[in-house]
C-alpha cells in the first residue's frame, strides 16, 4: 500500500526524471487516441448506413424487407461492438492517466506505489487488448455483411460478350 519512507526530492532534476518516466505512457495515450479516432469514424459510417437503410426497410415488402431487416440487425450489432471497443479504449486511457498521476504523486511524496502502478498498467493493457479484439470481431462482421448478393451476380451481363 501507500507508505512514506523517505522525504521527497522536489528538485528540478527529480521532476525532469519523473517526466521522462511519464513519456512512455503518454505515447501510449497518443496511440489509444488514434485508435479512438478510427473507431469513431467507423461508428459514424455504420450509423449513416443504418439511417439510409431504415426508410428502405419501412417501404420494402417480401424478400426485400427480409434482406433489409437482416442488414439493419447486423448494423445494430456492429454499432454495439464498436461502442464496446470505444469504451474499452477510453478505460485504458483513463488507467494510463492514473499511472502517470501515481508516478508523479509517488515521486513528490515518497510513496512506494510500484505494485499499484504495475497493476494499473496491466489493467490498461488488458483493456486495450480487449478493445482491439472487439474491433477485430466487428471488422470481420462488417466484411462478411458486405457481400454481393448471388442474384445480382447471376443477372449481371458481361458487356464484352454482347
What would you note in describing this structure?
With 162 residues, the protein is mostly helical. It has a domain at 45-149. 83% of the residues lie in helices and 0% in strands. The chain is built from 4 helices and no strands. It has helices at residues 12-59, 62-109, 114-145, 150-155. Helix 2 packs antiparallel against helix 3 (114-145). It is rod-shaped, with a radius of gyration of 25 Å. The model is unreliable at 1-6 (pLDDT under 50).
The global form is rod-shaped
**Strands, total number:** 0
Task: Give the N-to-C terminal Cα separation.
Answer: 80 Å
Tell me what portion of residues adopts beta-strand conformation.
under 5%
Rg result: 25 Å
Largest sheet: none
The sequence of SSEs as H and E is HHHH
Q: Treating each run of at least 4 consecutive H or I residues as one helix, how many helices?
A: 4
Structural class: mainly alpha
Low-confidence parts: 1-6
**Mean model confidence by pLDDT:** 86
- Percent helix: over 70%
Question: In short, what is this structure?
Answer:
The protein contains four helices and no strands.
Amino acid at each position: 500500500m501507500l507508505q512514506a519512507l523517505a522525504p521527497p526530492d522536489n528538485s528540478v532534476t527529480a521532476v525532469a526524471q519523473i517526466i521522462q518516466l511519464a513519456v512512455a505512457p503518454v505515447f501510449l495515450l497518443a496511440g489509444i487516441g488514434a485508435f479512438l479516432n478510427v473507431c469513431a469514424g467507423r461508428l459514424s459510417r455504420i450509423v449513416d448506413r443504418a439511417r439510409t437503410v431504415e426508410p428502405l426497410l419501412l417501404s420494402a415488402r417480401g424478400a426485400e424487407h427480409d434482406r433489409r431487416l437482416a442488414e439493419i440487425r447486423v448494423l445494430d450489432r456492429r454499432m454495439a461492438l464498436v461502442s464496446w471497443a470505444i469504451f474499452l479504449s477510453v478505460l485504458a486511457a483513463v488507467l494510463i492517466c492514473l499511472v502517470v498521476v501515481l508516478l508523479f504523486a509517488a515521486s513528490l511524496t515518497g510513496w512506494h506505489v510500484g505494485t499499484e502502478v504495475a497493476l494499473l498498467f496491466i489493467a490498461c493493457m488488458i483493456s486495450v487488448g480487449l478493445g482491439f479484439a472487439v474491433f477485430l470481431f466487428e471488422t470481420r462482421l462488417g466484411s462478411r455483411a458486405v457481400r454481393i448478393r448471388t442474384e445480382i451476380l447471376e443477372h449481371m451481363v458481361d458487356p464484352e460478350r454482347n
